[in-house]
Design a protein that fits this description.
There is one protein chain. The chain is built from 5 helices and 10 strands; from the N terminus they run E-E-E-E-H-E-H-E-H-E-E-E-H-E-H. The termini are far apart. By secondary structure, the chain is α/β, with parallel strands linked by helices. S-adenosylmethionine is lined by residues 135-137, 157-158, 160-163, 181-183, 185-189, 192. S-adenosylmethionine binds at residues 135-137, 157-158, 160-163, 181-183, 185-189, 192.
Amino acid sequence: MLRLRPGDPVRLFNPASGEWLGILLRLDRRSAEVRLAEQLRAPIREPGPQLAIAPIRANRLDWLVEKAVELGVARIALVTTRRCVVRLERSERLRAIAIEAAEQCGRLSLPEFAIFGDLARFLAALPADGTLVVADEAGGEPIASVPPIPPDAALLVGPEGGFAPEERALLAARSGTRRVSLGPRILRSETAALFLLVAYALAQRPR
Ligand code: SAM
């Protein structure tokens, strides 16, 4: 592992202050002191969608978090659904993956993480009537013909076992929900999530 020493240059970033070159003054296991030397990038707004996904196996979720950060996700909600096969305990590891991905791809912001114990609680936390795009392997509008997706939309992907009938009923009862089909094949949850993120990115361009 690369060990930094006092006097080494470091790069620091956050959305409010942009990116800075600093010089490390002191480092221990819990904290560091850095003298800011020069601003490398001004702050910018990095709007993006909320991606909601049922927990999937750790290696696949790690991979998805890295790719979702690269594709600009602003918030990742982990929503336990009836047919989840995986229990999620903590999001610290995912946060560490997000930090590494942000450094690698040059983002200034990190996605927030939120954990919901069931679908009803996730839906209740959404803005009333806010757009929720749900990937549904059972059918919906073909993704290519979906009208522009608003920048503050949430994107929802089901678990490996699919949505349960009562969850489908909750989704159908909520205004602002749009069910979309991602084609004729059954995709893994993480593939469907990336597909939605790319569709969202394309929809942000004027058509
Ligand atoms: N339980 C389902 C089955 O066995 O038929 C498959 C669920 S799929 C592995 C996981 C999730 O990915 C689904 O809940 C859905 O959100 C999304 N998904 C997969 N394929 C899709 C497709 N062709 N169109 C839309 N969403 C899809």
